[in-house]
Amino acid sequence: MHRVLVVIQIISAIGVMVSILMQPSKMDGFQNLISGTGDTFFSKNKGKTRETKLARTTIFFSVVFAVVVIMQNMTMFQ
Question: What is the C-alpha end-to-end distance of the chain, expressed in Å?
Fold first, then answer.
C-alpha cells in the first residue's frame, strides 16, 4: 500500500510541476489594468481556453497530491 501511494505521489508531483510550467505568464494582465482595455474574446469564454484547462489540471493534481500525503501519514501511524 505504501509503495502505491509513493508512486501516485510522484506522478501527481510531476503533474503539478508540468501543468504550472505550461501556464503562460500573468504579467500582461497588469499592463491591461493600466491601459484600461475592455473585455476580450478570451475573457468572455474563460471556460474553454487552454489556460483554464491548465488551471483545472493544476488544481486536480494538487488535490491528489495533498490527499496522498494525508493517506501516507495515516498509514505511517498504524
Answer: 12
